[in-house]
TrEMBL record:
It holds the Pfam family Trans_reg_C. It comes from the Bacteria. Signal peptide: none annotated. SUPFAM superfamilies: C-terminal effector domain of the bipartite response regulators, TPR-like. It comes from Rhodanobacter denitrificans. The keyword Iron does not apply. This is OmpR/PhoB-type domain-containing protein.
Length: 790
C-alpha cells in the first residue's frame, strides 16, 4: 500500500479539446481506483467493488471536501442524518472504506485520521474526463418567475454572529484546539464540606485558596473558574473522569473539610497514575488548616511551600477576599459586593480590593463604573513597585474600552500590560493581554497582527493550563478566519471550541461559537453540518443569560433549519425574533431576521411582504462589518420591487447599495455591488454581462462556495432566459457539484435541462431537487417538462 497514493491536490485531468461542458457527472481516479460519485460506483484495478451505502457515502463526502479536514460530527450528520452514532459503528464504516480503496488505519494514504477531530482525504485525485457527461445542445427556454429564490442566506448568519459576539470572549480574569495543560498539573475540586450552613462559602473559597497555595509553591494548577465550569456541566457521579479528560490535569485533588467543636479537619486526597495519596491538617481556622494541608502536599510532591509574613491583619484580609472570590465563582455578584463593602478601611485602599470591585462592575455590565475604578488604581499600581497588579488593572481597562468601542485606547492598555508581564511569571494574565490586543487588531481588520497575538496567547494559556481561556481563544481564531472569508479554516477552530465550551457548560460562548460555525458551514454549502452544529447548541437554549445571545441562537437555528428543508419551523423562529423586544440591543438581530423573512416571502410569491420586510431591515444593517448582511437585504428588496413592477424603486435601492459598498475594502462588497447592478441592468433589458463576469471572477477568487453559488444562480438564470445556452451551460456547471445539498443550485440544474430539452436529465435533476426541498414549496419550478424535449 505504501506509495500507492500521493498527497491530494486540486489538479484535474483536462477535458478533450472541443468537448461539451459536462452536466453533473463526476468521476475521480486515484491509485488503481476510480470512483463515480453520480453512478455510486467504485472500481479497483478495473473490477467493481460492491460497497454498503454508508461506506460509499463516507468516501464520497470526504472526497468532495478534500480541501479540508471533516469533523466527526459533520461526517456523522451528513452520512447517517443524525448527530450521534456509536464510535464502533463509525470506526467499522471507516475501516471498510479504507479497505475498499486499498488503504489501512496504519498507512492512512487515502483517509487520514485527525486526532481528536475527524478525518481528511489525502490521496491525490484526478478528474476522469470520460465520466459520461451529457453534452448540451438545445434551444433556450424563458427563465422561471422564481429563478432567484434560493438557499438560506449564509451572509446574514455570519453578520449576526459577529454582531452579537463582540467582546464576548473577554472578562476580567473570569474570562481550542484542546491543548494540554503543563505536565503534572493538578485540578483542585470543590471542597466536600461537613459544617453548619453559614460555612457554605468554604466549598469554593477553600478550593480556590488551596489551588492558589499550590500554585504559589510551584505546582501547576488548573484555574478555579475552569473547574467550577466543568463541575456545573458534569453529573456528580462522574466528576473526576470528566474533569481529568476536559482539563488534561495529571492530578485530581479531592478536598474535604469537617467542622467539630475542636476545630476543622481539612483532608486532601490526590491521585495521578499511581495509588491515591492523602494528607490532613487540623486548625481552628479552616483556611489555615487548608493552607497547612496544601503545604504538606507540596512537600510530598518535592516542592517547597512559600514563606508567609505572619501578619494577622493580612491573614484576616485574605480570609475576606477568599470568601468574596467564592461568591464570584458561583456568580453571586451582589454577595461578593456586600462582603467587600464590609472590609476594613486599610483593605479598601488596596489595589487587590479595587480590582475585585471592578471585576464585579464589569460582570454586571456597569462598564463606565468599572473603568473609573480601574483608572483610579493606576497611580498606586506603579510599573516599578507593583508591575503585576498594574498589568491586571491595564488588562481590565482594555476589556472595558474594548466593550465601549474605544479600540485605540484598548490596544494601548493591552500593549502596556503585555510589556510588563513579559518580564514576569504570570502566563494567564499575559495571555489575556495578547488575546485582548489580538481582538482589537481583528476589529481593526489588521488580521496578520491579530493572528500573531492569538498565537502568542496560545503559548501563554498553555503554560497557565487555562483550558477555558484556550477555548475562548480558539473561538476568536475561528471568528478571525470567518471574517477573512476562510470558512473552511474557521470550522476547524470553531468546532473544537464549541466542544470545549460544551464540556465547561459555558452556554453563552457555546451559543455564539456555534452560531459562527453555522454561518461558516452555510458558506461552505454544508447544510447538514450546519444543522449538526445547531443541534449541539440548541439543547442549551434556555440557559444563556444574555437576551441578545438567545436571539442570535434562535436565528442561527432558523437558518440551519431552512437550509435543510424545515421551513415552517424556521419561519416560526424568525417571526418570534422579528416581533420581539428590541430594547435589549436586539435591533440588528431583528433586522437580519426580517431580511431572511423577506427572502422566504419572495420564494413563496409574496413580493409585497418581501419588499416591506427587506426595506425595513436595511437601515439597521448599514453598520455591520460584513457587507453580505447588507447585500442580502438589498438583493431581496430589489428583486421584490421588480416583481411588483417597481423597477425605478429597485434601481434606487441598487444605486444606494453601490454607493454604500464603493468605499468598503472587502472584496465581498464589490462582488455584491456588481451582482446587484447586473441584475438591475438585466431587468432593464441592458447587457449586464460585464458586471456578472466581474462578480463571478471575484467569487471564484475567494474561498466561499456560497458566494459562487449566489452569483451563478443569478447569472445562469439570466443566460437561460436570454437563450444563451452554450454560455449558460459553462456557468451553471460551476455549481453542479453542490446540487445534492443546495436547493438553489439544484433548481438551476432543473432550469438548464428544461431549456435544453433534455427530458432524462431534467427528470433526474427534478428528483434531486425534490429530495432536498423538504417543506420548501418548489412546485412552480417543477412544472411539466416543455414539449419537444428529448
Amino acid at each position: 500500500m505504501q506509495g500507492r497514493f500521493r498527497r491530494a491536490s486540486r489538479r484535474q485531468c483536462p477535458l478533450p479539446a472541443g468537448s461539451a461542458a459536462p452536466v453533473s457527472r463526476t468521476a475521480y481516479c486515484f491509485g488503481d481506483c476510480r470512483i463515480d460519485l453520480a453512478a455510486r460506483e467504485l472500481r479497483r484495478a478495473g473490477q467493481l467493488v460492491v460497497l454498503p451505502p454508508k461506506v460509499f457515502d463516507c468516501l464520497a463526502y470526504l472526497i468532495e471536501r478534500r480541501e479540508r479536514a471533516v469533523g466527526r460530527d459533520e461526517l456523522v450528520a451528513a452520512v447517517w442524518g443524525k448527530t450521534e452514532i456509536s464510535d464502533t459503528l463509525l470506526g467499522q464504516t471507516l475501516l471498510k472504506a479504507r479497505r475498499a480503496v486499498g488503504d489501512s488505519a496504519g498507512a492512512q494514504q487515502a483517509i487520514r485520521t485527525i486526532p481528536r477531530f475527524g478525518y481528511a482525504w489525502v490521496a491525490e485525485l484526478t478528474v476522469d474526463a470520460g465520466a459520461g457527461a451529457t453534452p448540451v445542445v438545445a434551444a433556450a427556454r424563458p427563465k422561471p418567475a422564481a429563478a432567484l429564490l434560493r438557499r438560506a442566506a449564509w451572509p446574514a448568519a455570519l453578520a449576526i454572529a459577529a454582531a452579537a459576539a463582540g467582546g464576548l470572549w473577554l472578562a476580567l480574569r473570569d474570562a481550542p484546539r484542546v491543548d494540554p495543560v503543563p505536565a503534572g498539573s493538578a485540578a483542585v475540586l470543590p471542597v466536600d464540606v461537613s459544617a453548619p450552613a453559614e460555612w457554605t462559602w468554604v466549598r469554593l473559597g477553600l478550593m480556590d485558596a488551596i489551588a492558589s497555595r499550590l500554585r504559589a509553591g510551584g505546582q501547576p494548577v488548573v484555574p478555579s473558574d475552569n473547574v467550577v465550569a466543568l463541575m456545573r456541566a458534569s453529573p456528580d457521579g462522574r466528576r473526576q473522569p470528566d474533569v481529568r479528560a476536559a482539563s488534561g490535569a495529571a492530578l485530581i485533588v479531592t478536598p474535604s473539610a469537617t467542622w467539630s467543636d475542636s476545630g476543622w479537619i481539612v483532608r486532601l486526597r490526590w491521585q495521578g497514575e499511581g495509588p491515591p495519596v492523602e494528607v490532613d491538617e487540623r486548625n481552628a481556622d479552616v483556611l489555615l488548616a487548608g493552607r497547612a494541608a496544601a503545604d504538606r502536599m507540596l512537600v510530598r510532591l518535592g516542592k517547597t511551600p512559600p514563606v508567609e509574613s505572619g501578619d494577622a491583619q493580612a491573614w484576616s484580609d485574605t480570609q475576606l477576599l477568599q470568601r468574596a472570590e467564592a461568591a464570584l465563582l458561583t456568580g453571586d455578584l451582589d454577595g461578593a459586593r456586600r462582603l467587600l463593602q464590609a472590609a476594613p478601611e486599610a483593605l479598601r485602599q488596596s489595589g487587590e480590593y479595587g480590582l475585585r470591585l471592578a471585576r464585579i462592575d464589569f460582570r454586571a455590565g456597569r462598564f463606565d463604573a468599572a473603568g473609573e475604578r480601574l483608572r483610579a488604581l493606576l497611580p498606586q499600581a506603579t510599573a516599578e513597585g507593583s508591575p503585576v497588579l498594574r498589568a491586571r488593572v491595564l488588562n481590565g481597562i482594555g476589556h472595558v474600552t474594548l466593550r465601549q468601542g474605544r479600540l485605540d485606547d484598548a490596544a494601548d492598555a493591552y500593549s502596556e500590560a503585555a510589556r510588563l508581564l513579559e518580564r514576569e511569571n504570570e502566563p494567564a494574565d499575559l495571555g489575556q493581554a495578547y488575546m485582548g490586543r489580538g481582538s482589537v487588531a481583528q476589529l481593526q481588520r489588521r488580521y496578520d497582527a491579530a493572528q500573531a497575538d492569538f498565537s502568542r496567547a496560545h503559548v501563554a494559556f498553555d503554560l497557565a493550563g487555562d483550558g477555558l481561556a484556550l477555548a475562548r481563544l480558539e473561538a476568536n481564531e475561528g471568528m478571525l478566519d470567518a471574517s477573512r472569508d476562510r470558512p473552511a479554516r474557521a470550522v476547524t477552530s470553531l468546532e473544537r471550541a464549541a466542544r470545549r465550551f460544551e464540556a465547561f457548560g459555558t452556554t453563552n460562548e457555546l451559543a455564539m461559537t456555534s452560531g459562527i460555525e453555522i454561518a461558516a458551514r452555510l458558506a461552505l454549502l454544508e447544510p447538514a453540518a450546519a444543522l449538526a452544529a445547531s443541534e449541539r447548541a440548541w439543547s442549551f437554549r434556555e440557559r444563556p443569560s444574555n437576551p441578545q445571545v438567545r436571539q442570535a441562537l434562535a436565528f442561527h437555528r432558523a437558518v440551519a433549519l431552512d437550509a435543510n428543508g424545515r421551513r415552517r419551523e424556521a419561519v416560526a423562529l424568525l417571526q418570534d425574533i422579528a416581533d420581539g423586544d428590541a430594547s435589549t440591543d436586539g435591533t440588528v438581530v431583528q433586522a437580519v431576521a426580517r431580511s431572511e423573512l423577506a427572502r422566504i416571502a419572495l420564494a413563496d410569491g409574496r413580493a409585497e411582504d418581501a419588499a416591506a420586510l427587506a426595506l425595513a431591515a436595511i437601515p439597521a444593517l448599514d453598520a455591520l462589518e460584513d457587507p453580505r448582511g447588507r447585500s442580502a437585504a438589498t438583493l431581496a428588496a430589489a428583486r421584490a420591487l421588480r416583481a411588483l413592477g417597481r423597477s425605478a424603486d429597485a434601481a434606487r435601492e441598487t444605486a444606494a447599495f453601490e454607493a454604500w459598498a464603493r468605499p468598503r475594502p472587502e472584496p465581498a462588497a464589490a462582488l455584491y455591488a456588481s451582482l446587484a447592478r447586473a441584475e438591475q441592468m438585466a431587468a432593464e433589458r441592458h447587457d449586464g454581462s460585464a458586471d456578472y463576469e466581474r462578480a463571478l471572477a471575484l467569487a471564484a477568487a475567494g474561498d466561499v462556495p456560497a458566494d459562487v453559488a449566489e452569483v451563478v444562480v443569478s447569472y445562469g438564470t439570466a443566460l437561460i432566459g436570454e437563450g444563451r445556452l452554450e454560455q449558460a451551460t459553462a456557468v451553471v456547471g460551476r455549481v453542479a457539484r453542490w446540487a445534492d445539498r443546495d436547493l438553489g443550485c439544484a433548481l438551476l440544474q432543473v432550469r438548464l435541462h428544461a431549456a435544453l430539452g433534455q427530458r432524462a436529465a431534467w427528470e433526474h435533476a427534478t428528483t434531486a431537487a425534490r429530495a432536498i426541498a423538504g417543506d420548501r414549496d418548489i412546485s412552480r419550478e417543477l412544472a411539466v417538462f416543455p414539449a419537444g424535449g428529448i
